[in-house]
Description:
By secondary structure, the chain is an alpha/beta fold. It is built from six helices and 27 strands. It has two domains: 2-121 and 250-351, 3-Layer(bba) Sandwich (FAD/NAD(P)-binding domain); 126-246, FAD/NAD(P)-binding domain (3-Layer(bba) Sandwich), CATH 3.50.50.
Amino acid sequence: MIKTDILIIGAGPTGLFAVFEAGLLKLKCHLIDALPQAGGQCSEIYPKKPIYDIPGFPEVLAGDLVDNLMEQIKSFQPGFTLGERAETIDKLEDGTFVVTTNKGTKHHAPVVAIAGGLGSFEPRKPLLDNLSKFEDSGVAYMIKDPEVYRDKKVVIAGGGDSALDWSIFLADVASQVTLVHRRNEFRGALDSVEKVQELKNQGKLNLITPAEIIALNGDDKLESVLIIKISDAKEEILLDVDNFIPLFGLSPKLGPIGDWGLEIEKNAIKVDTFDYQTNIPGIYAIGDVNTYPGKLKLILCGFHEATLMCQSAFQKIHPDKKYVMKYTTVGGVSGFDGTKKEAPKAVVKKIE
C-alpha cells in the first residue's frame, strides 16, 4: 500500500502545483491519474496551445507549463500512479482514507485532494451524417500539434475560447483559416474576439457568422465543407478545405468519484471556499472539478485553491503544530532527504 500525506487525484496543473505548496509545508504528496503522463488536458489534448493568463508569462504553451511545474516540484519528490483511475474510497476508523484504483493499487492518506479537472470526457461532436468517415482523414476534435496544419486550409467551428485561440494561432501557420460560428456573439474572452476581428480585417482569417456546417464532402479524405448562413436568404457556401476542426467543448463526467458520497451540483463537486473542503471532512476538491458561487474555471484559480487547501490540510495532519507565514524570495527549499535544494528558491513558512 502506498502511503502519503496528501493523496492528489488528478495530475493536471492544479494537482501539480498543490505538490509545490504542500512541499513548502513539508507534506509529502502522491498523485493518481488515469492518463499515462502528468499534465492532464494540457499534455493530452493541447500541449501546443498557447495560454495567456498565467501570471508572469505573457504566453506559454500548455506543454511547457506542465514541464515547468514538473521542474518546480522535482525537489519534493512526489509519487505518481499513472494510467490508473481512482475507483473507490474507504474511510478508516482513524479518519484516514484508502483509495483503490481500477487496477487494484491501494493508497493510504489522511487527506485526499480531488484535482481531476473535468473528469473523464469526450468531445461534443456536430450532428453530421458522415462525420465519422473523415475522423482519420481531415476531421479532428482537438489540436495536439499545430504543425500538422502548416500550409493547409483549415475550417474551425465554435464560439468559445478554444475556437478563438486556435483560430488566432493557426492564422500564422495554415495557408487559410476560416472560423464558423452559429451566432454573431462569441463566448470567449473579449480580447480574443477583438484579435479575431482584427485578423479578419487584415485578410488573415475568414469569419463566417451566423452560420453552421451542414455537410462534409470527399472520397478518401475530406475535400470541402458546405456552410449555410443562418439568415433569411439561407445562403450556402462551398469551401475547399484540408481539415475541419469542430471545437464545441467537452462532455465531462466525474466517473467513479461521483459515487463517493460527495455533494454534486451540475457534474461538479461543491466545496467550502474557506479551504475548498467537500462535505466529507478530509476530502478537498480543487480546480475545474469543483463548484462554488462565483467559480471561474481558470488554471490560475486552481493554483489559488490548491494553496488554501494545503494550509487546511497541514492543520488537519498536524493539529499540534503552528506555522508562520513568511515570504517566498530567499533561501532554498529542503528536500525530503534533508538536503538543501536550490530550486525552487523559496522559504515560505516556518513550522514550529
